[in-house]
Amino acid sequence: MLLAERFVLLLLDPESGEFNAPHKKADLDALCATGLLIELVSQQRLRPQGNRLVANGSLPTSHPLLDEAHHALGLQAQTAAQCIAHLLKIQSPLPQHLCDGLYRRDVLHRERRWKLFGGATPRYRLRSHQARNETIAVLHAAKQRPQERIAHIGLLLMMDLAGALTRFFSAAEHGPAIEQILDLGSHRQDDENLRAVALLRDALIDT
Question: Does 139 score more than 60 pLDDT?
Answer without folding.
Answer: yes
